[in-house]
Amino acid sequence: MSMAQRWIDDHLATVCIDQYDDSVLRGRLYHRSVDGGRVFRSTIQLLMEMERILDASDHPKSYTARRTFAAPPEQTAAPPCETVCSGEKATFFLKVLFRQNAGWQGSVTWLEGGQEQSFRSVLELLGLLDSALSETAKAS
Q1: For 11-25, what is the mean pLDDT?
Q2: What's residue 36's pLDDT?
Q3: HSE value, Cβ hemisphere, 13 Å, CA-based, for 135
Q4: How far apart are CA 32 and CA 11, in angstroms?
Q5: Distances (CA, A) of 119 to 12, 21, 77
Q6: Containing H/E element for 129?
Q7: 25 close to 132: Cβ distance less than 8 angstroms
Q8: Domain count of the chain?
């Protein structure tokens, strides 16, 4: 694997959204560093799982040390993902390029919508996910 390909793989995750009720995301998160992926049952759990993956791969490097009150919850493995996984509601490629100012910066690609948008914060990322999922709900 070339250095450029490893860099892309370390920065890219697949987010499969299976349920979206009352702005709560539920689904699966896949990254090359996690065998079988991770199941998430809430939006905060998605963010925490992604942060753990970024910390474990050390790409991109964390800008600040994370502060916690307790140990992280037990992780639940997702079923294996053959090639490209897809969510029941939507599928996103999430590319976190930087972790500066205690936030994430990068881009998110909505596969079903065929669109890519950049984000400058986790809040902006969540807004993009919400707009895509709201668009999906209107179409169905």
Answers
A1: 93
A2: 82
A3: 12
A4: 10
A5: 14, 23, 28
A6: helix 122-139
A7: no
A8: 1
